[in-house]
């Protein structure tokens, strides 16, 4: 049996050998003594120091000094310029297919409605029961609006949707399949290329939610043949609370794609103020109203860091972090009745690990009081969200040890 001292030495050695260790110092709060283990980067990422400087400068200079002229000096195109950089750095998307703007919910609505319109006469939308509530609610709302039928995939909560599940659910009636690339609860990682192939066998469209993927797991939207995608920027992309989401429409669909919320900045000539709406050429048509310039600011710094480091190195660190968390859980927690709620195999797991126990709901606040910050997801899951650029191996050790100590006290 590995002792506490041996695990401490292991964590220290893993941190010394970590090629990304220096990047922790780029984040605000990494040395905060009040937070000894931040294990919730899959809900809200730490801010970069560069982002604090960027936002301050934006308020002082671009807004405070340049004022309205800043729209002509870059603001107007920010949703597209940041979208292209994000697409290249983290999404496997060629230029002209990704845009920043709106919340994930609004973008999902636009994309689901647009997908349904691309498949006229089809009567079903496919989604899994364990998808994130917003995804399910949006799809239910669209189905109610359009008189479509929902076909539910019943996936194992501790596993996830497989290509066989999708193949059994789709048919000539399917317009669009909506799935999360990484399951928000279990962390299950879809076999996206196989699922895209299964969807396309039925001539349906695949819409991926990338909220728990972007910035933690390599994504290749173009290479996989994904049709549409959306995701948030405040998790592994460290955009800050409420930072705007991103949307992707594959280039092959852009000419015919129509979304239902027509706004002036998504029009062909925004400043013509013309009577009647003509959608912009390209992915700008996914935009509706004025973009949130302040909200987009911080995303640029994480995108720049991903461009520097590369998603392969980020994924390697993520696999190592989650693997260490699973090892610690096996050694310290299973004897207390904890069950691993995520896939044990690294290749089937995203950037977080979920562990299940009936006591975790009440335990979460006690852990927070100790400076150990995971989050809880019903019915009894504690999620350990491990951000590769800002989380240390020793944080993982400290956090899992605190969970063990709380279980011992029950």
From TrEMBL:
EC class (word): hydrolase
Cofactor: pyridoxal 5'-phosphate
Involved pathway(s): Cofactor biosynthesis; NAD(+) biosynthesis; quinolinate from L-kynurenine: step 2/3; Amino-acid degradation; L-kynurenine degradation; L-alanine and anthranilate from L-kynurenine: step 1/1
One Pfam family in the UniProt entry: KYNU_C
Enzyme Commission (EC) number: 3.7.1.3
SUPFAM superfamilies reported for this sequence: PLP-dependent transferases (SSF53383)
PANTHER family (alphabetical): KYNURENINASE
Task performed by this protein: Catalyzes the cleavage of L-kynurenine (L-Kyn) and L-3-hydroxykynurenine (L-3OHKyn) into anthranilic acid (AA) and 3-hydroxyanthranilic acid (3-OHAA), respectively.
Name under which the protein is recorded: Kynureninase
Organism: Nocardiopsis mangrovi
């Amino acid at each position: 049996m590995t002792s506490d001292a041996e695990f401490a030495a292991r964590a220290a050695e893993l941190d010394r050998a970590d090629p990304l260790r220096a990047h922790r110092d780029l984040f605000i709060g990494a040395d905060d003594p009040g937070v000894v283990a931040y294990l919730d980067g899959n809900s809200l990422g730490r801010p970069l120091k560069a982002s604090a400087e960027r936002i301050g400068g934006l308020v002082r200079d671009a807004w405070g000094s340049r004022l309205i002229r800043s729209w002509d000096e870059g603001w107007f195109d920010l949703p597209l310029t940041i979208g292209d950089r994000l697409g290249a750095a983290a999404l496997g998307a060629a230029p002209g297919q990704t845009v920043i703007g709106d919340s994930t919910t609004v973008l999902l609505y636009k994309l689901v409605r647009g997908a349904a319109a691309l498949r006229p006469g089809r009567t079903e939308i496919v989604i899994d029961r364990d998808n994130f509530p917003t995804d399910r609610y949006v799809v239910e709302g669209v189905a109610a609006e359009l008189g479509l039928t929902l076909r539910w995939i019943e996936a194992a909560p501790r596993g996830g949707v497989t290509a066989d599940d999708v193949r059994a659910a789709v048919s000539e009636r399917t317009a669009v399949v909506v799935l999360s690339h990484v399951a928000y609860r279990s962390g299950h990682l879809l076999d996206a290329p196989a699922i895209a192939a299964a969807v396309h066998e039925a001539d349906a469209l695949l819409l991926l939610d990338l909220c728990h993927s972007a910035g933690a797991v390599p994504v290749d939207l173009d290479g996989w043949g994904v049709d549409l995608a959306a995701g948030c920027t405040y998790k592994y992309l460290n955009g800050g609370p409420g930072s705007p989401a991103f949307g992707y429409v594959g280039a092959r669909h852009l000419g015919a794609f129509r979304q239902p919320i027509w706004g002036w900045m998504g029009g062909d000539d925004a400043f013509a103020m013309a009577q009647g709406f003509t959608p912009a050429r390209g992915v700008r048509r996914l935009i509706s109203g004025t973009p949130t310039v302040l909200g987009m600011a911080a995303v640029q710094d994480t995108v720049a860091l991903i461009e520097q480091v590369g998603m392969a190195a980020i994924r390697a660190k993520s696999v190592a972090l989650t693997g260490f968390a699973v090892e610690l859980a096996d050694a310290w927690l299973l004897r207390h009745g904890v069950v691993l709620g995520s896939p044990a195999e690294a290749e089937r797991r995203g950037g977080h690990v979920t562990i299940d126990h009936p006591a975790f709901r009440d335990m979460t606040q006690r852990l927070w009081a100790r400076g150990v910050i995971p989050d809880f997801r019903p019915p009894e899951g504690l999620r350990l969200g491990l951000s590769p650029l800002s989380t240390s191996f020793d944080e993982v050790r400290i956090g899992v040890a605190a969970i063990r100590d709380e279980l011992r006290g029950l």
